[in-house]
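Narrative of accomplishments. A recurring question from our advisory board has been how the design workflow behaves on a single, concrete structure rather than in aggregate. To address it, we present the structure tokens for one chain from the evaluation set, followed by the sequence designed for it. No filtering or post-editing was applied between the two.
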């Protein structure tokens, strides 16, 4: 690639976010701080290395606090530091733990010899199932590790070696002698092969099945039908920061710095695991280097660091290696998705079916809700969506960015493109003909739904008008060039949230246990507080990521910004009202936000339209994305710059899911072969062309008083399907088996 190819930029607009009206004209700039494209208030801390991620924490007993840097320096100190090692005569210096993992996916430990390791210099402790403290059970909310000699998954921790230094711990870890007698009989690693054992899972957010009318009959009677199956592979979150924790037990209370998206829940889990009073457990996640769902739960490193800290009564830090993260956290399940479409000559759907097979560990409840969005996406009188869950003896499947939509749209939006081809219709026109007036299954009115506006505006901006309906019509040398589009939809969720605000002469401090996983929480909460209190953003300090602060909603499900934002909004309003007319300039207030009934009485989704142009090399089958445009409607933006960054990140994720991402399962031995970033391919800069993002100006008054809807997971939703559709348009080959690697095009 040339340097120009490597540039990640919007060529004609710089890097400024763009908010537009439906007619394409630029929206007015926001009147107050909310919505302004402010750079991240913690950005300087991050690029100067002052932001301490869990594994880097040395002396902080409280979360870092963040103030917009234009006041001078961003604040980086924690409050009440842990007494340093020197002050304690060295006894409380941090120790380092290294996890030893199982080399079989299932079986029993028949030999576990720690004696040599224990005698090596610097080694303080070796924990195994034989000397772990007593732990609670998962049924009681605990997350126990190393409970017995049984191995249930590949790389499952079998020992934690703790030493004075990381080097000593690593060296000793290699001297642990472990023999595992594998028992892989009857183990299942292939989702299709496990189909017969699949069950209908317990409802999560919505019921796993929906049936309206009679889809089979609609399929029999319609002049045009499509019945095809799409498959998506297991995928890994692959966040930049590996899971890490530093635990410190002072004999009475436990402080744990961890990388956790839902830090307010972490003390409950650790308390249940180790039989501690919850009030004695304090968890802090000041900065998190990406999560994508992989850090929603308390994982092995945090539990094992805690166990070692309890035993040693000194701080212990444990980081999973990059390789361990792939097995010892969670991943997105593979899916097999059958789509059925029944349509008349004009493309109006009479039937719509989306049936999903996903996998998880035997007995686990989480399922990839890949058909959920289809219930609200297009009108059709006869409908059927189902989810089935196949038991696989792989590590746990759980939420990964836009659980459900991220892979569900890879199937339904490919199917819509195939139907458009069958009917000789423009794909946007087909979607417009099936645009529902109310939610097609629940009958609820939409809060705001601007899907058609997103498609039409995107079509104008992308240059869609002259696109031929047939494939393989544009060639540049060896390259076939094509374009494709897909709809984006992602459910809007809200969670209860609490916040506190204190005002003094210097400004206001906002506190909630909300986290910032790189998405901009510090910044948008500062903007909301500034606007509500009538202060400049520079006078707002934000403290997040501490379980002792008023309970935040955590970062998950695209609910974080609006839920925590509403709590901050309400607390600031309360304080403002309290001080009004008193002449007072100091005070504090707390508030709790609870989602209202509008979540039930309105169909609430964020929407968008993705457009992609790709080239396919005629000789090698290599696909390159040449440009992409995403047009989104997610209600009011809290910060147009961080919103755009979220959308960009999601679209880049879409490139990965369309073309690269795949955990390769060793079907004999039951592990992910490509468990590192050399072999688990995610888009690198050279894979990412100029991406453009635009937002339609919007305010969803049914979503919440701030007017915003979920945004974090919208950008990935549908992005990969637009690329797949563009690949077909380039070269005429439909690939329904993701990722679209060159071999599938040859
Ligand atoms: Mo999200 S997959 O709930 O971090």
């Amino acid at each position: 690639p040339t340097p120009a190819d490597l540039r990640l930029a919007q060529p004609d607009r710089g890097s400024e976010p763009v908010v537009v009206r439906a007619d394409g004209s630029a929206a007015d700039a926001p009147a107050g701080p909310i919505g302004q494209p402010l750079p991240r208030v913690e950005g300087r801390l991050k690029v100067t290395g002052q932001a301490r991620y869990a594994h880097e924490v040395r002396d902080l007993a409280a979360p870092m606090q963040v103030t917009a840097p234009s006041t001078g320096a961003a604040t980086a100190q924690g409050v009440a530091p842990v007494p340093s090692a020197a002050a304690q005569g060295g006894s409380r210096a941090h120790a380092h733990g290294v996890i030893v993992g199982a080399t079989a996916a299932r079986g029993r430990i028949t030999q576990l010899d720690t004696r040599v390791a224990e005698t090596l210099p610097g080694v303080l402790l070796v924990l195994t199932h034989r000397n772990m403290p007593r732990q609670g059970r998962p049924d009681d909310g605990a997350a126990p590790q190393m409970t017995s000699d049984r191995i249930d998954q590949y790389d499952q921790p079998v020992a934690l070696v703790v030493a004075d230094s990381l080097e000593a711990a690593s060296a000793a870890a290699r001297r642990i002698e472990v023999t595992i007698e594998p028992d892989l009989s009857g183990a299942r690693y292939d989702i299709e092969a496990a189909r017969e054992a699949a069950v209908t899972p317990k409802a999560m957010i919505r019921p796993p099945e929906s049936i309206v009318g009679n889809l089979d009959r609609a399929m029999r009677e319609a002049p045009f039908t499509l019945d095809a199956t799409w498959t998506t592979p297991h995928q890994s979150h692959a966040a930049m920061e590996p899971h890490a924790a530093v635990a410190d037990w002072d004999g009475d209370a436990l402080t744990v710095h961890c990388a956790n998206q839902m830090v307010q829940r972490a003390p409950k889990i650790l308390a249940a695991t180790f039989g501690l009073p919850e009030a004695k457990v304090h968890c802090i996640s000041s900065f998190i280097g990406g999560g994508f769902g992989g850090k929603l739960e308390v994982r092995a490193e945090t539990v094992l660091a805690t166990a070692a800290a309890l035993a040693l009564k000194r701080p212990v830090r444990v980081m999973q290696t990059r390789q361990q993260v792939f097995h010892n956290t969670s991943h997105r399940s593979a899916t097999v998705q059958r789509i059925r479409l029944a349509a008349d000559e004009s493309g109006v759907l009479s039937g719509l079916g989306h049936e999903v097979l996903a996998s998880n560990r035997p007995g686990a409840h989480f399922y990839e809700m890949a058909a959920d969005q289809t219930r609200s996406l297009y009108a059709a009188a006869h409908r059927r969506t189902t989810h089935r869950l196949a038991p696989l003896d792989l590590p746990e499947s759980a939420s990964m960015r836009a659980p459900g939509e991220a892979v569900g749209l890879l199937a339904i939006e490919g199917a819509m493109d195939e139907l458009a081809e069958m009917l000789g219709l423009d794909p946007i026109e087909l979607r417009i003909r099936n645009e529902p007036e109310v939610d097609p299954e629940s009958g609820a009115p939409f809060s705001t739904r601007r899907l058609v506006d997103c498609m039409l505006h995107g079509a104008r901006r992308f240059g869609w008008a002259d696109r031929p309906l047939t494939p393989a019509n544009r060639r540049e040398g060896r390259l076939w060039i094509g374009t494709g589009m897909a709809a984006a939809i992602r459910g809007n969720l809200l969670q209860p949230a609490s916040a506190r605000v204190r005002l003094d002469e210097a400004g206001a401090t906002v506190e909630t246990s909300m986290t910032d996983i790189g998405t901009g929480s510090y910044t948008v909460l500062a903007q909301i507080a500034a606007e509500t209190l009538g202060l400049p953003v520079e006078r707002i300090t934000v403290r997040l990521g501490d379980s002792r602060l008023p309970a935040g909603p955590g970062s998950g499900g695209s609910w974080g910004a609006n839920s925590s934002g509403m709590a901050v909004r309400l607390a600031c309003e309360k304080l403002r009202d309290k001080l009004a007319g008193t002449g007072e300039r100091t005070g504090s207030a707390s508030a709790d936000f609870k989602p209202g009934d509008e979540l039930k009485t309105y169909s609430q989704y964020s929407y968008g339209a993705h457009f992609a142009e790709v080239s396919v090399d005629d000789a090698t089958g290599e696909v390159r994305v040449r440009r992409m445009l995403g047009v989104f409607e997610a209600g009011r933006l809290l910060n147009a710059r961080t919103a755009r960054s979220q959308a960009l990140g999601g679209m880049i994720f879409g490139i990965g899911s369309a073309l690269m991402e795949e955990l390769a399962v060793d079907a004999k031995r039951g592990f992910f072969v490509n468990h590192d970033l050399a072999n688990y391919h995610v888009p690198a800069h050279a894979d990412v062309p100029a991406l453009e993002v635009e937002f339609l100006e919007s305010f969803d008054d049914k979503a919440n008083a701030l007017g915003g809807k979920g945004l974090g997971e919208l950008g990935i939703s549908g992005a990969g399907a637009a690329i797949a559709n563009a690949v077909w348009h380039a070269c005429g080959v439909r690939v329904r088996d993701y990722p679209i690697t060159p071999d599938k095009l040859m």
